Amino acid sequence: MEFPCLAPGQYAFGAACFGGVQKACVLERTELLEQHQRKWDQMMADRRQKEVDYMAAREQRVEECEQQLQEMRIQDAEEYNQVKIKLETDVQVPNCSLALRFNGHFPGEPGLAGVY
């Protein structure tokens, strides 16, 4: 039986030419590979862009946190200084009142009779 579409070395599968089926399969495979490669490349580009966006957002959050931390340090230092001054003032006031109470003398020194 002769098949007009067969070249020497090709085999027939039923009434169809095996070479034509093989070419169709190779062509379909090539198209699928190209389609999947384009899809893969697009997905990788999307991922790279998301990574860049994530890193930019993260860097911005880090800068904001560093700024907040610096502001909190300044505020804490100001509060510390205010409390320190207040405590120093509170400690000085009773000493002044004691000095006035005892007329500049410490308890037990002469000249304090009847002051208690």
Percent strand equals under 5%
The helix/strand order is EEH
Rg, please? 47 Å
The dominant shape is rod-shaped
Number of helices: 1
**What is the averaged pLDDT score?**
81
- Name the helicity range: over 70%
Largest sheet: 2 strands, antiparallel
Q: Classify the secondary structure makeup into a structural class.
A: mainly alpha
Major beta sheet, strand line-up: 1-2
Number of strands: 2
Distance between the termini: 140 Å
Q: Unreliable stretches, pLDDT < 50, 5 or more residues?
A: none
Concise description?
The chain has one helix at 18-101, and strands spanning 12-13, 16-17. It is mainly alpha-helical and 116 residues long.
What do you see in this structure?
It contains one helix and two strands; from the N terminus they run ββα. It has about 120 residues and is mainly alpha-helical. It has a domain of about 60 residues. The chain has a two-stranded antiparallel ribbon with strand order 1-2. The mean pLDDT is about 80.
